[in-house]
Amino acid sequence: MININNDFCLCDVSVQFQQHQLLQPMSQQEQPQWRTGWEPQLSLSQFNQSQYSAVPAIGRVPYTCQKQVKTIHTYDFSKHQKKLKAKLCPLLGTGLAFVTAKKKANLCKGKKVSKRRSKYTGVTKNSINYQTLIVVRGKKTYVGSFPLELDAAITFDFYSLMLHSDKAPTNFAWKAEDILEMVESFNLNGGVFEPARFHSKLINSS
């Protein structure tokens, strides 16, 4: 099950720890100077501290993190699904792979891999979980957080297929029948993708 409420921040762990401390209840004298986007237009004489401290919780998140909180669940994939299904139809029942696994480009031989990096495309390590990220309309978009690296990789493949059809970069090879099952499962679950259901469908890993 995708978790969009936890581990969504793309900042370093140290920055997240600072955020956690800063988000604790504070006295009026301890209030930090948060960036909300509107205070540069106010002069010091116009600035009202009581109004400023009443900003909702999201306004108390550091500005650099607010810009990164964009999730895949805000997008409508109905048109993408229609295009994908049209591409899948000719291969249904053939047993042929619709897409093949593609190796992650930035995993060079002999290059030291950081703790936040994964061997899978679209996957990063954050705290004890693995995040799935994908580029949508030119913007890096948060998909979900998973205890298992494999679940994060399969989830990336699903959304990559939804977005790019037969041109999708994927971590694994997938048959047309299995992709169609993914889409139908996604729709039946109200737009929630469950990667664990497709572990047995894997053909090949990168």
Automatic annotation (TrEMBL):
Compartment(s) of residence: Nucleus
Key word Hydrolase present: no
Residue ranges the record marks as coiled coil: none
Annotated ranges, domain AP2/ERF: 109-173
Record keyword Transmembrane present: no
Keywords tagged on the record: DNA-binding, Nucleus, Transcription, Transcription regulation
Domain of life: Eukaryota
PROSITE patterns per UniProt: AP2_ERF (PS51032)
GO molecular function list: DNA binding; DNA-binding transcription factor activity
Record GO cellular component, one term: nucleus
Name this polypeptide is given: AP2/ERF domain-containing protein
Organism: Euplotes crassus
